[in-house]
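This part of the workshop introduces the protein records we will be handling. To make this concrete, we reproduce a full record directly below:
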Amino acid sequence: ILRGRVCGIPTLMDCTGALQRAGLEAQRTLIKPNLAELEELTGQKAPDRQTVYDLARQVQAKYGVSLIVTLGREGAFALFGEASYWIPPLMVEVASPAGAGDAVVAGMTLALARGDRIEDGLRLGFALAAATVQHPATADYCRQDAEQFLSQVQLQRL
């Protein structure tokens, strides 16, 4: 991770516990915790959206990291430097949530690799996640569904 940071290569992490803490200390670019992982990381409960946002800001300030905090059917927060967004959930039939977080990371990874704007990566990641949860198989999706969802992903600037 440090070698990537020195070379200007963005690093994204979606893990928990000791691995997450090691990654934070190594100054990776972006982490994607879900609610339980954010609570574990901070040692605090987040009973409402405002508390989730406040805890994410604390992590951002402490480690200098960008975050996408996913809340399942409740939506997500994305914090990148001074820019923060609320991403309302897309109303889709959920067959299985398995792989949704990975889809968000995949969309962000592709956008960063192509040099796209952060907002484009968020839209792609959440469109992929919406397409993914509609299938019972882990991390399976229909490309046409993901393309359709792209225009439906809202980024509300905070």
In short: The longest strand covers residues 66-70.
